[in-house]
Amino acid sequence: MNRVERERKYWEFASGDPYVRDNYIVDKNIKDSDCLEALCFDPFKYKRTLEVGCGIGRLTTILAKEHPGCTFIGVDISEGMIKQAPELSNVIYKLGKGRSIPEGITDIDFVYSMFVFQHIPEDGVRDYLEDIARVLKPGGCLVFQYVEGVESESFSHHFTCEEVCNWLQRHYDFPYVRKHLLHPSWSWVTVYRKG
Q1: How far apart are CA 181 and CA 30, in angstroms?
Q2: Residues 6+ away with beta carbon under 8 Å from 70
Q3: Is the entire prediction scored with pTM above 0.70?
Q4: Nearest to 38 by CA among 152, 178, 137, 184
Q5: Which of 12, 52, 57, 78 is nearest to 136 (CA)?
Q6: Cα-based distances in Å from 93 to 80, 86, 107, 112
Q7: Rounded Cα–Cα distance for residues 88 and 65 (Å)
Q8: Distance between alpha carbon 44 and the CA centroid of its chain, in Å?
Q9: Which CATH class is domain 3-193?
Q10: What is the pLDDT at residue 100?
């Protein structure tokens, strides 16, 4: 079984937990509103938004309800997680293969990812960043969170700020890194797709 299939199996198992939200998806000390504030989402600029690793649609659902004039797309590796996401008229959920965005998703203004890149190794993060550039409009914004450090275990991967900024150079401008936001080991990156 390859790495992506192990990840899929792990998240499919997690999706069967009746307390999946509390046990796998959120840090009980961090409110959803704080996570959304960290994204700096602007509904006037970003009409088509993509969440990489949407899980049960926790954040996408909140954004979609608050901004009915925008379209939201959630992608996740787990079919079980997606099946638990609430159905809303301005949200589309797609099953991902891991490491790439499903075909047919294009012209995205804003991409975000939280609690995802800390679970996959460097090559997976780099693949995602490359493929996000394919679907993100020139000038479009990408915001993601990762864990700062050098440790690497089965489902816990940490990266240095220098590494992450180097991975972004090919397709993105102006990396803005906010360290220790919401959690002492979390870093948040905001970048814009080169035009």
Answers
A1: 11
A2: 43, 46, 47, 48, 49, 63, 64, 90
A3: yes
A4: 178
A5: 52
A6: 12, 10, 16, 15
A7: 8
A8: 21
A9: alpha beta
A10: 95
